[in-house]
Amino acid sequence: MMKLRFAVFSPHGQPTANRGCPWHAAWLMALAAGMAMLAGCGSGDGTPASTAKKDKRPTLAGIVFQEDEFFRLVLFGMRDAAKKANVELLVGYSNNQPTKEAELVNTYIVRKVDAILVSAVSKKGSVAALKAANDKGIKIICHNTPLDADFPPVYIECSPADLGEQTGKAARKYIEEKLGGKAKIGILAFKSQVPEQSDARVGGFKKEVTQLPGVEIVAEQDAWLALPAVAKAGDILTANPDINILYSANEGGTVGAVLAVKNAGKVGKIVVFGTDFNAQLIGFLQSQDNILQAITAQRPFEVGQMAVESALKVLKGEPVEKPIYLKGVCLSRTDPAGITDFDAKLKEWIAKGQGQ
Does 72 or 15 have the greater pLDDT score? Predict the structure, then answer.
């Protein structure tokens, strides 16, 4: 059976430059001639050239756009799947920069990888570089962020609308049971970072809570990293002192919202609902301060596993499902056992990833 090898560059890996040594061109010509002779003779062990080519193990390259808990777990899932398939896996970060993403893609083209597993920086802006790779015969496997193109054979994501809706249902229940069906809500989104995802999550949340006629959305700002979110949420609370609920559409924003409530001295007066998870947020859910009420967690470890598994199928010419949407997992104070179980699963994922 053919063995496969996956490779993903480190974010700092770059091709070696030609330093212009006087003997360099001649040496390269000699090397090329030698390689051509080897190619004509087969693999060097008596195997015909055509067979040697078929036995070459494919290489995959991966790109994620930031270093946070979510993508860390995506990569852990990739490593787990790679280990099970007995393949090699390396990883590269675009750091949310289109130019860095394009550099990585170009590096992978030069290295003639067989597939790229990518969470694209931009639905539209990332198309050109990835299409150039696709045109070279490189398969593009998308996860987490969609690409506005038809050439990727696979797209894997935890449904952003579902993430918002599940948190919205938990918030709606809280408003009905604790606030008499009335609430004023401030929202932290990430529209200027990934507009399609942000709109879907926020839209799903609004869809649920606005079914109550006594609910009013009084502010909506962008803040997706924890420290900026503390400041932005603080500004929202200062400008709207009658807010009693904050909702954040992502991990960093949810952390920042909880800390902003503490900083404002509003414990017991304002509660937080959010999206995504990390160990800190699970701790907030279990805290006696009662600020964070519920979050809807994604399944990043499974996303990473599926990206590798789908890439293997595509390279073997096997059918794949497109798109693949996973449902989130709602973690609420009303279900402490569910929080404990998910925390145990999180520790298991981390242990697997760190053991690779």
Answer: 72
